[in-house]
Design goal:
The chain has helices at about 10-20, 50-60, 65-75, 90, 110-115, 120, 130-135, 200-205, 205-215; strands at about 25-30, 35-40, 45-50, 75-80, 100-105, 145-155, 160-170, 175-185, 190-200, 220. It is of the alpha+beta class.
């Protein structure tokens, strides 16, 4: 004869239901409240220092007076999904099989404000436009360029920019995908950047996750 199942008390059921709904968040929410800039990354990604990235992207040594000024004019963060996280994964010509992300908010100089265009934003990290690619064709090992997405962004809060997604072979026969969102405010005084890099196979496998990160990039501007 089967025994009758014992029912849990109503209070215990309610407690279990509450606990089930209180799991760890899937994402870490990254924000700079002063710059009104927000995005999210999977919570298992690792934050890495940006000193070497900032130096490489500007050509300035972090000990120089100009770099000191840079530190006062911008904010940057980076997150790497690798089990062996390193900021170098963004810049290396080697194979990066896990995604890495870099974000920056920076004040622009007066000279930069006079030259910023959508094409300048497209070519911020690597040459994307045909003119930019032609200009470096004789001096770079970049091959296999493929433009996957080129979207002009015009948020309602006084910003404009682009999101470009493209492939490049960096010289080792393996395609990498770069997903870049670059925005400026209306007077061009501030640049907002989110850049994701991974091998093309990695990007394809994790496209939903990486698109969620890219589209979570939110900026509020009053200029």
């Amino acid at each position: 004869m089967l025994k009758r199942a014992t029912s849990l008390p109503a209070a215990a059921v309610a407690a279990l239901t509450l606990l089930a709904g209180c799991g760890t968040s899937e994402f870490t929410y990254v924000k700079n409240s002063g710059e009104q800039t927000y995005f999210k990354v999977p919570h298992e990604w690792h934050e890495v220092g940006t000193k070497s990235l900032d130096d490489a992207l500007t050509g300035l040594n972090s000990d120089s007076a100009a770099a000191g000024l840079r530190q006062r004019l911008w904010w940057s963060v980076a997150y790497d999904a690798s089990a062996d996280p390193s900021a170098e994964h963004l810049m290396t010509a080697g194979v990066t099989t896990e995604p890495i992300l870099y974000a920056r908010v920076a004040q622009t100089t007066e000279a930069q404000r006079d030259t910023i265009s959508l094409d300048i934003l497209r070519n911020f990290f690597l040459p994307v436009t045909e003119e930019a690619r032609d200009s470096v064709a004789q001096t770079t090992s970049l091959t296999g360029f493929e433009l996957l997405q080129d979207e002009v962004l015009t948020p309602e809060n006084g910003l404009h920019g682009v999101r470009v997604v493209y492939n490049y072979d960096l010289g080792l026969g393996v395609l990498h995908t770069f997903d870049q969102t670059a925005l400026v405010n209306n007077d061009g005084s501030k640049l907002y950047l989110l850049l994701i890099r991974c091998t093309t196979s990695c990007y394809a496998e994790r496209s939903g996750e990486l698109d969620t990160i890219a589209t979570s990039f939110t900026v509020r501007s009053d200029r």
